[in-house]
Design goal:
The protein is of the alpha+beta class and 193 residues long. Helix content is 24%, strand content 32%. It has a single domain, classed as tt1808, chain A (Alpha-Beta Complex). The longest helix is centred in the N-terminal third of the chain and has 17 residues.
């Protein structure tokens, strides 16, 4: 996991770095949040199983939507950041014809499933909620495998989410409008260490 804590990186420089590294690796997994470059850990098999469950739950409830896995989003003020959430819920076909980093306007919900790495706390619990709120993404869903909890952030005010509701795995979670989906999280208990 590479994180630059001292160097502020401009968006154009990040985009060039990403293009170069993408030629070397199939998917570099790089993100730019608050001017810092982060390397996102690759998902483990259980992470993938959780995303599979979530995709099925979303499509079953709202078939006109799709949970796009690891879609690059232009985030933060003036869209100067680059994030790759584990999932971006948007209308089916919303990103057709766009490039690697898409306009986040159609995104109803960003999703992160915590990884077992040292950057999870800062990235998924602090930096990402702020970045998604600044972007105006209505809902941020954090599936936290460390604490065995689900947190639903909503009501972005352009700086932060004004509402955050946390429930333990096993409880029913209502994703507020514009998402309007109810999740039964009992199965998540089976997919943690």
């Amino acid at each position: 996991m590479v994180t630059t804590d001292r160097v502020h990186v401009e968006t154009d420089d990040f985009d060039e770095l990403y293009r170069v590294l993408s030629r070397v690796a199939e998917r570099a997994g790089l993100e730019l949040i608050d001017g810092k470059v982060h390397s996102k850990a690759g998902p483990d098999g259980t992470h993938g199983r959780i995303m599979q469950w979530l995709v099925r739950s979303c499509v079953r409830s709202r078939p006109e939507l799709w949970l796009y896995p690891v879609q690059g989003l232009r985030v933060q003020r003036h869209r100067r950041g680059r994030a790759r959430p584990d999932g971006a819920l948007a209308p089916s076909g919303a990103f057709a014809g766009q490039g690697e980093w898409v306009d986040p306007a159609p995104v109803l919900m960003a999703v992160e499933v915590t990884s077992y790495d040292s950057d999870t706390d800062a990235r998924d619990r602090t930096e990402k909620p702020r970045a998604y709120a600044e972007t105006g993404i209505p809902v941020y869903l954090l599936i936290d495998r460390d604490s065995c909890e689900v947190t639903v952030y909503s009501e972005p005010d352009g700086v932060r989410y004004e509402s955050a509701r946390t429930v333990p795995f096993g409880k029913t979670v209502v994703l507020p409008d514009p998402v309007g989906i109810t999740l039964e999280t009992e199965q998540l208990k089976d997919w943690v260490r």
